[in-house]
C-alpha cells in the first residue's frame, strides 16, 4: 500500500503514458513546504499526491471507532471537490476553479465519498462525486485510476465501495450493459491458472492475467460490494476453495482463498518492488486482513492481524495517518481493539497526526535546522505526478488503491 522510490518502478514510465489523460503533460505545482500545509490536514508530509486519500482514511478510521473528527478536517476534505464532482489529491488554492490541468482521479474521489458518506451531512458533495464517477465509467463496467484509463481491479473496487456507501446498487451502475462486477470477473484468474483465484491488477499486453496480492485484496472487497470499512463478525459468503467464478461472490471466495494460502507461510505479504521482494509489505497485509474478514475467513485474518500487532508499529510511525488508519480498519474488521494494538494505541497515534495535535504545537518555536532537513528528506522524492499511475500499472504493491498512502516503508 505504500510507495517506495524505486528505479525499477520508474522504468514503467512508458506504460502509464498510454493511459494517462491529456493533463499528464502538465507539470504539478511546487510541493508545499511544511509551514504552508493546511492546519486541517492530517500528516505533515507533502499532500500533493495523497492529501485527499490520507484525509479520507483518517476521518473514516476515526469515525469507525467512535471518534468525532475535527470539523475543520472534514470541511477541508469536502472543500477539495472540483465543480464537476471529482477530487484531486490536493488543491492548495480551492478558490481557483479546476481545469483540464487539475489532476483528478477516481481513487481520491471514491475515498472521499466513503468518508463523507459515513460522517453524514454532505449529501450534495457525495451525490456530485458519484455523478462524476458514473460519467467516467468504462465500457467494460469498470474504472481506471484516471478518467479514460484502462479499468483496473483496485480502482473499480474502491469505486464500488463509494457507490455502496452512497446508497447505490453497484450492480445497477452500468455502461453499455456492463456493471463493475462484470469488469472484476474479467480480472479474476481461473482456478487452473498460476495464482488460481487471485485478481490481476490489469491484463498484460497480450491479455494475460498475473496474480497480484494487492489487487486481490481490493478485488475481494469489490466483489462483495464492500468499502474500506468492514464490520466484524462477517460470515463466509461462499464455500472456501477455488471454483469457477460465475458470480462476484465466488470470485471473492476464490480471491480470499488465494490470500489465505499466500499468508499461511509467515503471516504477511511480501513486497513486489524490485530488490525488496524479501521484505514484508505491511500495508497490503492490512488490506488482506480486511478482505479476509469481509469474506468470513476469520482464522487467517486473525493470524495476520497478530503478525501486524507484533511488527507494524514502526512502519505506521514512519508512514503516517493513512498507515494508522489501515491498521485501525484491519483491527476493526477482525473485532480487535485498535486502542491496544500490540501495546500501541492506534487511535491516539492517528489523532496525534491531525489538526488538533498540530494546533497544540503552536507557539513552541521553529524546529532546528537539522530536524527540518531530516523532514525535507523524508518528504522528498515524489517526482512527477503520474508516479501513482506508474506504480499501479506496474503492480508493485502500491496498496489497496493508490501510491500516495505513505512515503516511506519500513525495511
Automatic annotation (TrEMBL):
Cross-referenced InterPro entries: Prenyltrans, Terpenoid_cyclase/PrenylTrfase
Annotated signal peptide: 1-24
Positions of region (Disordered): 21-41, 354-377
Presence of the UniProt keyword S-adenosyl-L-methionine in the record: no
The Prenyltransferase alpha-alpha toroid domain, residue ranges: 56-164
Keywords of this entry: Membrane, Repeat, Signal, Transmembrane, Transmembrane helix
Transmembrane regions: 382-402
Gene3D superfamilies attached to this UniProt entry: 1.50.10.20
Protein name: Prenyltransferase alpha-alpha toroid domain-containing protein
Originating species: Streptomyces viridosporus T7A
Amino acid at each position: 500500500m505504500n510507495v517506495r522510490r524505486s528505479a525499477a518502478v520508474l522504468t514503467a514510465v512508458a506504460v502509464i503514458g498510454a493511459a494517462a489523460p491529456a493533463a499528464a503533460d502538465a507539470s504539478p505545482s511546487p510541493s508545499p513546504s511544511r509551514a504552508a500545509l493546511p492546519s486541517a490536514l492530517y500528516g505533515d508530509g507533502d499532500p500533493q499526491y495523497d492529501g485527499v486519500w490520507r484525509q479520507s482514511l483518517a476521518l473514516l478510521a476515526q469515525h469507525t471507532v467512535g471518534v468525532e473528527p475535527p470539523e475543520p478536517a472534514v470541511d477541508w476534505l469536502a472543500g477539495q471537490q472540483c465543480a464537476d464532482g471529482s477530487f484531486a489529491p490536493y488543491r492548495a488554492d480551492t478558490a481557483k476553479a479546476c481545469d483540464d490541468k487539475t489532476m483528478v482521479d477516481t481513487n481520491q474521489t471514491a475515498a472521499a465519498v466513503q468518508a463523507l458518506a459515513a460522517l453524514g451531512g454532505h449529501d450534495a458533495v457525495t451525490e456530485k462525486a458519484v455523478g462524476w464517477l458514473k460519467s467516467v465509467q468504462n465500457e467494460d463496467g469498470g474504472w481506471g485510476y484516471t478518467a479514460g484509463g484502462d479499468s483496473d481491479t483496485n480502482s473499480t473496487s474502491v469505486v464500488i465501495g463509494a457507490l455502496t456507501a452512497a446508497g447505490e446498487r453497484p450492480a445497477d451502475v452500468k455502461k453499455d450493459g456492463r456493471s463493475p462486477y462484470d469488469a472484476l470477473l474479467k480480472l479474476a484468474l481461473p482456478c487452473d491458472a498460476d495464482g488460481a483465484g487471485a485478481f490481476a491488477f490489469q491484463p498484460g499486453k497480450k491479455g494475460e492475467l498475473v496474480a497480484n496480492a494487492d489487487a486481490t485484496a481490493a478485488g475481494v472487497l469489490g466483489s462483495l460490494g464492500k468499502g474500506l470499512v468492514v464490520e466484524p463478525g462477517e460470515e463466509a459468503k461462499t464455500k472456501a476453495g477455488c471454483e469457477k467464478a460465475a458470480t462476484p461472490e465466488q470470485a471473492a471466495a476464490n480471491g480470499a482463498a488465494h490470500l489465505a494460502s499466500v499468508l499461511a507461510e509467515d503471516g504477511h505479504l511480501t513486497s513486489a518492488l524490485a530488490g525488496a521482494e524479501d521484505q514484508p509489505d505491511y500495508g497490503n497485509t492490512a488490506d488482506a486482513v480486511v478482505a479476509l474478514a469481509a469474506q468470513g475467513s476469520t482464522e487467517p485474518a486473525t493470524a495476520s492481524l497478530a503478525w501486524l500487532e507484533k511488527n507494524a508499529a514502526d512502519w505506521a510511525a514512519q508512514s503516517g495517518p493513512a498507515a494508522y488508519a489501515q491498521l485501525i480498519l484491519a483491527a476493526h474488521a477482525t473485532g480487535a481493539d485498535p486502542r491496544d494494538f500490540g501495546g500501541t494505541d492506534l487511535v491516539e497515534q492517528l489523532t496525534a497526526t491531525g489538526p488538533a495535535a498540530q494546533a497544540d504545537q503552536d507557539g513552541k518555536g521553529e524546529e532546528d535546522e537539522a530536524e527540518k532537513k531530516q523532514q525535507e528528506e523524508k518528504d522528498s522524492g515524489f517526482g512527477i505526478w503520474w508516479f501513482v499511475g506508474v506504480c499501479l500499472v506496474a503492480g508493485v504493491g502500491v496498496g489497496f488503491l493508490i501510491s500516495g498512502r505513505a512515503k516511506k516503508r519500513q525495511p
